[in-house]
Write a structure and sequence with these properties.
It contains 8 helices and no strands. With about 170 residues, the chain is mainly α. It is globular. The termini are far apart. The longest helix has 26 residues, at about 1-25. It has helices at about 1-25, 30-45, 55-75, 85-90, 100-120, 120-135, 140-145, 150-170. The chain has a domain at about 1-80: Rna Polymerase Sigma Factor, Chain: A (Orthogonal Bundle), CATH 1.10.1740.10.
Length: about 170
């Protein structure tokens, strides 16, 4: 039993930050993101016997978290509203080792990108986060989202177009 607890603790430590930022990108509320991330780990522990070892643990975890985020957004019915502090929270957590002015410019750009991501429809927001911030492959995203690989590619293409359009409207130079 002690070994299982230790192994689970290691998984939480390995994925906690990534699950938090995925949830934050989806729900735009730091408190809700923490709760959803923790709930995903609780569900993993509760349903560990259902885990199919043919697939990577990360895929299963993010599938659970993705569903939790979608359900949360449906319950709140405010998926188009962005909590301003959430974008700043995500942007400022990424360290920049250049001069202070360049670092501030980078933080501002990251904040604007996260705000633009928050304006995307849920299915586009989700695919952008999985691809660019969770660095998942097309096949991994297809497993998490339970859609064909071709649909992942198409959705990602249109999500990037929409994101570019939003950023241009915001006056962000790409």
């Amino acid at each position: 039993m002690k070994g299982r607890v230790s192994a689970f603790k290691e998984l939480v430590e390995r994925y906690q930050r990534r699950t938090y930022f995925f949830a934050l990108g989806m729900v735009h509320n730091p408190d809700d993101a923490r709760d959803l991330s923790q709930e995903a780990f609780v569900r993993v522990l509760k349903h560990l016997k259902r885990f199919d070892q043919k697939y990577p643990f990360k895929i299963w975890l993010f599938h659970i978290l993705s569903n939790l985020c979608k359900n949360h957004l449906r319950q709140r019915n405010t998926h188009d509203n962005v909590v301003v502090g959430a974008a700043d929270d995500m942007a400022s957590t990424i360290p920049d080792h250049r001069n202070p002015e360049a670092a501030l410019d980078q933080i501002e750009l990251k904040s604007q990108v996260w705000k633009a991501i928050g304006l995307l429809p849920e299915k586009f927001r989700e695919i952008i986060i999985l691809s660019h911030f969770q660095e998942m492959t097309y096949d991994q995203m297809a497993q998490v989202l339970e859609i064909p690989r071709g649909s992942v590619m198409s959705r990602l293409y249109y999500a990037r177009l929409k994101l570019r359009e939003i950023l241009e409207k915001m006056g962000v130079e790409l």
